[in-house]
Amino acid sequence: MASLIQKILKQARTTFSNNTEVFNENLFKLYNLMDVVTSSDLNLDISFAFQDSETQYDAPISYITIYEDNILSMSIFVLKSNKVVPLHNHPEMYGVIKVLAGKVIVDSYSLNTPKTFEAEIQLAITQEIERVKDTVQTDGPATADVSTSTSTLNQDVEEASNMVDVSLQISSPTVDASTSTTSTPNVDFAQIPNQNVIPLRRVISAEFDGRNIVDINSKPCILKPHESNIHEIRSVDGPAAFLDILAPPYNTEIPYVGPRICSYYANLGSVLKDVFLLQEINSPSFYWTDIKPYMGPDPTVEVE
Ligand SMILES: [Fe+2]
User: Domain 4-111+202-291 maps to which CATH number in 3.90.1150.10, 2.60.120.10, 1.10.3720.10, 3.40.50.10840?
Assistant: First the structure.
């Protein structure tokens, strides 16, 4: 008789290898299987994460590979107490996450929403104004055409501001975990690093979906190519572990784009209510993993 992890792998392969009209139905079947998986199904023992011998050589997070092919990856993350998988993306990927032990706080963000489009229009207009102002200051009196442009752009900004009710001040985001509400918007667009100034480092806008406290009794979390695609996961009240299925896996090829690389982000602040600017950064130095062996049932199934 197939083990639960075999059933999960088989369903995951079915789900993510057939992008058809039955995709959502298959994803829901996978979701239901993930909903009932426990640490004992995977013979997972995280007692090592409770050991209190923190040195600079102790990884804050352990990574356990269960399975990977060109369709999906299946792994377990074990976090020591109050450790963070920093804010990161999953380029054009799906993900299903189920907490197996402990409790985590998940902050997630969506991409390409109506609100992020509003923010990007506002940002583009404001940066254009700054560019024009710089040109005016640099080039001196040849200002007749430029000032006309500035005037037109200012009108555009005013219209956009009326449309989206933007406040142009800056601060860090704050979240009340109990209510999942965010601070009011407050970024000075002119302070945002221009992508031309920091080559290869993107600034993107993302809409905050909320903060969820997730434990073994919670439903699985699902991320999609745009929906809830960026997240940060933090263990609270002790160590925690979660099962993570990603499809396609990192480092596979995105057609016409390139390798599917994981990017990390710093949150620069909000630009509209619930919309934040995220600055791509190097992987934070506090985040690194060691590798632990998978001790559970063999998930491999015959795939027809
Ligand atoms: Fe992730």
Answer: 2.60.120.10
The whole-angstrom separation of Cα 44 and Cα 40 is 6
Q: How far is the CA of 69 from the centre of ligand 1 (A)?
A: 18
Going from the C-alpha of 185 to that of each of 119, 208, 276, the distances in angstroms are: 11, 12, 8
Domain ranges of the chain: 4-111+202-291, 114-174+186-191
pLDDT digits (tens, 9 = 90+) for 120-163: 888 888 878 888 888 877 665 444 343 444 444 444 434 433 33
The Å distance, Cα 243 to ligand 1 centre, comes to: 11
CA distance 184 to 166: 10
Q: How many whole angstroms from 262 Cα to the centroid of ligand 1?
A: 9
CA 106 to centroid of ligand 1, rounded, Å: 10
- For the stretch 179-205, pLDDT in tens is 444 444 555 555 555 444 444 568 999
Residue 63 alpha carbon to ligand 1 centre in Å: 12
